[in-house]
Amino acid sequence: MDKFFLFLKMHAIFSELTPAMDDFISGLMMACIYMGNYYKLNLNQIYKFNSEIIGCGLQKITRVSNKI
């Protein structure tokens, strides 16, 4: 999962997030929580992962998705 997080971080640094990418990342975060509940994983780690994703891209979102 570290390599995937690094990919998302690099993408957030070098490009502006579009509304479609915002939707994708939101879906990914929800899927991680769902799978964590389903497989009885440590949800604290998943919440931390989601928080780090939000922290990387929060300043890069577009105006449209920022208002939504």
Could you provide a short overview of the structure?
This protein is an all-alpha fold and 68 residues long. The protein contains four helices and no strands.
Can you describe what's shown?
This protein is mainly alpha-helical and 68 residues long. 78% of the residues lie in helices and 0% in strands. Helix 1 packs parallel to helix 3 and helix 2 runs antiparallel to helix 3. The radius of gyration is 12 Å and the shape is globular. The N and C termini lie far apart (29 Å). Mean pLDDT is 75; it is low at 63-68.
Question: Keywords for this structure?
Answer:
disordered C terminus; mainly alpha; single chain; 68 residues
How do the strands and helices of this protein lay out in sequence?
Elements: H1 2-14, H2 19-38, H3 43-57, H4 63-67
Helix pairs in contact: 1-3, 2-3
Order of helices and strands: HHHH
Count of DSSP H/I helices: 4
What sort of overall outline do the alpha carbons produce when their principal axes are compared?
globular
| Derived structural class | mainly alpha
